[in-house]
């Protein structure tokens, strides 16, 4: 039986990160040595990115809906968000935000709609009681109904002129 030597163990053991760098001549590497430093300078530090993301999440949770909307508007003007994301959110998952409930109630009053009539108008004839519970008690809604409410809220109220149309 062959006996293992210490030198054989060193050859088979994996090298730690950074070990052996700089041992090859510059001509043998795929990139010149000068560009390696420039490439490393362009890569952001993952820990710094994580800290920045943590701070952004913390500020987002502390901000009210108006501040969040202003931030999203600013991001969309800078070109960092697609056009669909420029409108402020109306719900957090399946739950309507308090400001959204107020907007829906105001528009329902303007159009003289009950929650059941609004659900029928949106194509969800059996969701009237669920919409009423969501508006009064903050209950959850189907995501399809949340999406339909989002589209309905951006439409002008009946009898109102569309501000985008030119007469």
UniProtKB/TrEMBL annotation:
Mark out the compositionally biased spans (Low complexity).
25-41
Region described as Disordered: spans on this chain: 1-53
Protein name in UniProt:
Uncharacterized protein
Question: Native species of this protein?
Answer: Xaviernesmea rhizosphaerae
């Amino acid at each position: 039986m062959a006996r293992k030597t210490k030198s054989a163990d060193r050859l088979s053991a994996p090298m730690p990160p950074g070990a052996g760098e700089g041992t090859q001549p510059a001509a043998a590497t795929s990139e010149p040595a000068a560009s390696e430093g420039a490439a490393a300078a362009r890569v952001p530090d993952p820990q710094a990115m994580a800290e920045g993301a943590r701070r952004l999440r913390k500020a987002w949770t502390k901000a009210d809906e108006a501040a969040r909307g202003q931030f999203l508007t600013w991001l969309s003007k800078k070109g960092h968000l697609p056009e669909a994301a420029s409108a402020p959110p109306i719900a957090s998952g399946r739950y309507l935000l308090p400001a959204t409930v107020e907007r829906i109630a105001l528009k329902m009053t303007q159009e003289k709609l009950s929650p059941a009539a609004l659900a029928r108008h949106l194509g969800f004839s059996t969701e009237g009681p669920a919409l009423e519970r969501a508006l009064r008690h903050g209950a959850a809604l189907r995501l399809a109904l949340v999406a339909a409410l989002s589209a309905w809220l951006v439409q002008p109220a009946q009898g109102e002129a569309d501000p985008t149309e030119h007469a």
